[in-house]
Design a protein that fits this description.
Layout lengths: L39 E3 L2 E3 L2 H12 L29
Antiparallel strand pairs: 1-2
Length: 90
């Protein structure tokens, strides 16, 4: 049982999933063939390379991501970008 605001990852290899939710709920279901490359996930950004993360942070700071409907306040400030360590796959 998930509570509001929680996420659930089911992983690949499923051909169906059963979902039940109370009336008025909003559900976001994302599926498909897994991407064939490693991804970096940092803060609210996803990219393939550290350079793409840096570019996205610059875009965020310059306001290129638009606004969030229903959010009343100034845009969140992106935290400092970490130094990404190379992986064995890099």
């Amino acid at each position: 049982m998930l509570r509001p605001g929680q996420l659930l990852y089911l992983g690949p290899g499923r051909d169906h999933v059963t979902v039940a939710a109370p009336a008025g709920s909003r559900v976001f279901l994302l599926g498909g063939v897994p991407l064939g490359e490693r991804l970096l996930m940092w803060w609210n950004l996803v990219a393939r390379t550290p350079g793409e993360i840096e570019a996205a942070v610059t875009g965020w700071r310059e306001g290129r991501f638009g606004t969030v409907a229903g959010y009343d306040g100034p845009p969140l400030t992106a935290p400092p970008v970490p130094v990404f360590q190379p992986t064995q796959d890099s």
